[in-house]
Write a structure and sequence with these properties.
The strands form 5 sheets. Strands 14, 15, 16, 17, 18, 19 and 21 form a 7-stranded mixed beta sheet that branches. The chain has a 6-stranded antiparallel beta barrel with strand order 1-2-3-6-5-4. A 6-stranded antiparallel β-barrel has the order 7-8-9-12-11-10. β2 and β3 form a beta hairpin. It has about 500 residues and is an alpha+beta fold. It has 4 domains: about 50 residues, no CATH class; about 250 residues, Thrombin, subunit H (Beta Barrel); about 100 residues, PDZ domain (Pdz3 Domain, Roll), CATH 2.30.42; about 80 residues, Roll (Pdz3 Domain).
Length: about 500
């Protein structure tokens, strides 16, 4: 019996695959052997109209996009030294550690592999003691694309970081020595110029027209393999990364590897919508998550560099952190969105505007702030001296403030890291008043030193040596104020603490 049934089952599967028969279940498969050919044909015809109603899926013609734009994508070779760096990165010299079995410091992806903690990279895991590196010649490669027929090229700032010599190789194999007109580490955009004319250029698109799920294509030189093409889809827009960046990245699943960095990301119409900048990886290679700088931001930086020789970014003068559900419950927010202000720079733009620790910034010039990284991204793309309107949530009420932004070159906007949620129970803190010299040392007017932490406070990450500053916005100047604040609280309290020179909020669940 099994042998007899196997033949018609295979026949049904073949016919379904060929489109001759509709989707038949196990019962239909058993009936094929007993029905006439005419009946089977009638069933197939009857099933066809449903198949015709399926929407057509049209993929872009990647070959045409590559043919039209491949000549405008260039390979960039860099010669530098392991200790050479720009003035903007001078403060990183003291942080350079002895290099383990990682990649060269002048590799195009070196800086971002380091930022994401790849084992064997300076700043990553498994590193030995810090040591001064010798001035050793190093080489690196990246990609770029021509935006002006007279030889203006866009790429990543980290591709040309510390470069003594930059060579651009065109698709027709011609090579030119390039001049770095300027590089902006805050957005990772650099502008190069070669002495040439009549060059092919790319057409620029708009990320506002790009949707999550749209096809995108990258052209670059991964591992030195020039004009390699990879494709994928947009995974997310406006992605904030934990590197104090001002960039609302495009996230894609396009395969990006060392050497692709600085190359163009095209939409389905063959327009450049981004500059491939970095990847998230645990292995040092592509793992399905890539990030690109929106082209509108890149061209804005390009124009500033070509006009003034440098890019300018504004600052608000605050340290912010994420609003999770526990914070939303504490501050009576309808949903966990916004940027929670942990600290305000003294005499900075935010302080002059009236912004206070504990405020939650929900909108900037009418644009919603969903994650904490949205705030530095919005502010960083503005110019010093520009006025912005902030919608903030303070003690259960919405307020509107106006701020005149400062210059980010003075001090970058920080994103503080929040601590994990705690468990149910009492607060669990043993506290003592600060001595006058202690308050002077850490720069606060009042507070309580945590002598011991247990229960929900300890579970939330509060530990001995932290300084308790406020609870749900109420000052914690003495034990009675703390007890009163906890008594008024619901199930969760937002505790502001001072730790290692930073002020951060910690959500503590009381029960």
């Amino acid at each position: 019996m099994n042998t007899i049934l196997s033949t018609p089952r295979r026949l049904v599967m073949a016919l379904v695959a060929a489109g001759a028969i509709g989707a038949l279940g196990a019962t239909g498969a058993g009936l094929v052997g007993t029905r006439s050919a005419a009946q089977a044909t009638e069933s197939a015809v009857a099933a066809q109209p449903a198949a015709l109603n399926l929407p057509a899926v049209n993929a872009p013609n990647f070959a045409d996009i590559t043919a039209r734009n491949g000549a405008a994508v260039v390979n960039i070779s860099v010669v530098g030294s392991s200790r050479a760096m720009s003035d903007d990165e001078g403060d990183q010299a003291s942080e350079r550690q002895q290099q383990g079995p990682g990649i060269s410091p002048d590799d195009p992806f070196f800086e971002f592999f380091r930022q994401f903690g790849i084992p064997g990279m300076p700043g990553g895991q498994g590193m030995g003691p810090r040591a001064q590196q010798p001035d050793t010649p190093m080489r690196g490669q990246g990609s770029g694309f021509i935006v002006s027929s007279d030889g203006v090229i866009l790429t990543n700032a980290h591709v040309v970081r510390g470069a003594k010599e930059v060579t651009v190789k065109l698709n027709d194999r011609r090579e030119f020595r390039a001049k770095v007109l300027g590089a902006d580490p805050k957005t990772d955009v650099a502008v190069l110029k070669i002495d040439a004319s009549g060059l092919p250029t790319v057409k620029l698109g708009q990320t506002s027209q790009l949707r999550v799920g749209d096809w995108v294509l990258a052209i670059g030189s991964p591992f030195g393999f020039e004009n390699s093409v990879t494709a994928g889809v947009v995974s997310a827009k406006g992605r904030s990364l934990p590197d104090d960046s001002f960039v609302p990245f495009l996230q894609t699943d396009v395969a990006i590897n060392p050497g692709n960095s600085g190359g163009p990301l095209f939409n389905a119409q063959g327009e450049v919508v981004g500059i491939n900048s970095q990847i998230y990886t645990r292995s040092g290679g592509y793992q399905g998550v890539s990030f690109a700088i929106p082209i509108e931001l890149a061209t804005r930086v390009q124009q500033q560099i070509q006009t003034t020789g440098k890019a300018q970014h504004a600052k608000l003068g605050v340290s912010v952190q994420e609003v999770n559900q526990a914070f939303a419950d504490s501050f009576k927010l309808d949903k966990p969105e916004g940027a929670l202000v942990a600290s305000v720079e003294k005499n900075g733009p935010a302080a002059k505007a009236g912004l206070e620790p504990g405020d939650v910034v929900r909108k900037v010039d009418g644009k919603p702030v969903v994650g904490s990284g949205d705030l530095p991204a919005f502010i960083g793309q503005a110019l010093p001296g520009q006025k912005v309107t902030l919608e903030v949530w303070r003690k259960g009420e919405s307020k509107t403030l106006s701020a005149t932004l400062g210059d980010a070159s003075d001090k970058a906007v920080k994103v503080a890291k929040s601590s994990p949620d705690g468990d149910k129970g009492k607060l669990g803190l043993a506290l003592r008043p600060l001595q006058p010299e202690e308050m002077q040392q850490i720069g606060v007017d009042s507070g309580l030193l945590v002598a011991q932490a247990s229960g929900p406070a300890a579970a939330a990450g509060i530990s001995q040596g932290d300084v308790l500053l406020s609870i749900n916005g109420a000052p914690a100047g003495n034990i009675e104020e703390v007890r009163a604040a906890v008594a008024k609280a619901d199930k969760t309290v937002a505790v502001l603490i001072w730790r290692d020179g930073n002020k951060i909020f910690v959500p503590v669940r009381l029960g």
